[in-house]
Amino acid sequence: MDNNSQGSGGVKSGLGSLFGGGSPGYSNNDLAGVSLTGMSPLSPYLNVDPRYLAQDTDEFILPTGANKTRGRFELAFFTIGGSCMTGATFGAFNGLRMGIKETRDMAWSKPRNVQIINMVTRQGASWANTLGSVALLYSAFGVVFEKARGAEDDLNTVAAGTLTGMLFKSAGGLKGVARGGLVGLALSSAYALYNNWDHITNSSSSASSRLY
Amino acid sequence: MEEYIREPCPWRIVDDCGGAFTMGAIGGGVFQAVKGFRNAPAGIGYRLRSGANAVRVRAPQIGGSFAVWGGLFSTIDCGLVRIRGKEDPWNSITSGAMTGAILAARSGPLVMVGSAMMGGILLALIEGVGILLTRYTAQQFQNAEDPSQLPPKDRGLGL
């Protein structure tokens, strides 16, 4: 480091003064030559440019081929599985309610239990399949949009939701497509809004509260 | 994707359920599209509409049954991992057998045993292929010679 060469002259003269009994301390000439690169406001002992110490973002080390957040494809299976299971639970409860309501006049016997179990499994399977296929279509469209645009944001979400709604109700003719598309648009816009709520409300409110 | 990283156990069940649904829905969709296309009156409009209808009705059902299989298999697998405290192929084989048995529970004990055997053998084949693949890909990383057998380097000039 470049301040050592000047400093060592001062040390030598200082040591010489200890052993030789000469004038104590460093001469002004020696001190004037010491460079001040190490004098940071944090500490004069830190020989580091303070610009390198400012860290306001998380710095993670990523292995090759990995990106910071999960892409849509990796989230897809979780979304689809979650929708399937939610649909199955909801359908099971719905089937239980319907089964008990329809067999109200029967006594508690094996045929009644079998009826109720049948309703539960059928409704559970039906709802699971419906929600699962909706999630599958949504994920597939989302991945297609992400790859086609090369960017990931909420526009992908809304577009994928709209297309899913349109395709899902495509059996109902043009009116079915329009209605399904509107429902898809509404639901996916609500989801995108929910995701960005903090961002939207914070940016429109008072000035930022950062300390620097 | 360089490595396929699996989720930790509770979320693995949801992932496997979704993966199985996707496989079943897409595979079943392709099958049903072809079947509906073929079993339709002559004329491209009829054929396409028949294919689309068959996909719309049957593909979710096939996906759903695959999803049930996958979800149940993964649940039993995670349970066995938790109980035994280790992960190895025996967990998967046992889970496959138990899944087959549970899903055939309404048809009586004999069918349950047959279904369990089918599930176990299927999983054993899958795990066997996986193990062979692991051994084969590990071979290419083996060192050519053992470093301790090399002749000792003589200490030449320089530090």
UniProtKB/TrEMBL annotation, chain B:
Gene Ontology biological-process annotations: protein import into mitochondrial matrix
Bilayer topology: Multi-pass membrane protein
GO cellular component: TIM23 mitochondrial import inner membrane translocase complex
Species lineage: Eukaryota, Metazoa, Chordata, Craniata, Vertebrata
Pfam families: Tim17 (PF02466)
Cellular localization per UniProt: Mitochondrion inner membrane
Organism annotation: Cynoglossus semilaevis
Protein origin, superkingdom: Eukaryota
Family as reported in the entry's similarity comment: Belongs to the Tim17/Tim22/Tim23 family.
Function: Essential component of the TIM23 complex, a complex that mediates the translocation of transit peptide-containing proteins across the mitochondrial inner membrane.
Keyword annotations from UniProtKB, A to Z: Membrane, Mitochondrion, Mitochondrion inner membrane, Transmembrane, Transmembrane helix
Name assigned to this protein: Translocase of inner mitochondrial membrane 17 homolog B (yeast)
